[in-house]
Design brief:
CATH superfamily of the largest domain: PAS domain
Radius of gyration: 18 Å
CATH architecture of the largest domain: 2-Layer Sandwich
Number of strands: 6
Largest sheet: 6 strands, antiparallel
Number of helices: 4
Shape: elongated
Number of domains: 2
Structural class: alpha+beta
Low-confidence stretches: none
CATH topology of the largest domain: Beta-Lactamase
Distance between the termini: 37 Å
Helix content: 25-40%
Mean pLDDT: 91
Strand content: 25-35%
Order of helices and strands: HEEHHHEEEE
């Protein structure tokens, strides 16, 4: 990128060009985000993941995408009840922290469990409503 010009008209052009460039780069920012990104549809199927999600859970994206989100949860009661949580979330989707008063756990490809923090944000598209789960592993 060029340095900021001094001329006000050139500054406007600079900001327009910079904004266009950053919009083109937004998929790169999502892919390289410091938190795992897992996008699911209303049925709980994983539609999209980023590199960090692959690292956190130990799966390649091709192994995760198309699977139910439950594959990333520990076996047991929390996993079994998660389907109802998905249904409830999509009835009133909002930006929020998931399980704010609980210790959440993820499960990697090898079956090991680990504590995580998850934030949710919905997006309505022409294809329907999706939920983005931003996942951070707690060390």
């Amino acid at each position: 990128m060029e340095k900021m010009p001094n001329d006000p008209v050139e500054q406007i052009k600079y900001f327009v060009d910079t904004r266009r460039h950053l919009k083109e780069m937004s998929p790169i920012f999502l892919e390289k985000a410091p938190d795992g990104l897992i996008v699911i549809n209303e049925e709980g199927y994983i539609c999209l993941v980023n590199e960090r999600a692959e690292f956190i859970f130990g799966y390649d994206r091709a192994e995760m995408e198309g699977q139910l989100i439950h594959v990333l949860l520990p076996e047991g009661s929390k996993r079994e009840g998660h389907g109802q949580h998905i249904i409830n979330y999509f009835k009133n989707p909002s930006v929020r922290e998931m399980g704010a008063d609980m210790v959440l756990e993820g499960r990697n490809k090898k079956g090991a469990t680990f504590p995580i923090k998850v934030s949710l944000s919905p997006a309505t598209t022409t294809e329907g409503v999706f939920a983005a789960a931003w996942v951070r592993r707690i060390l």
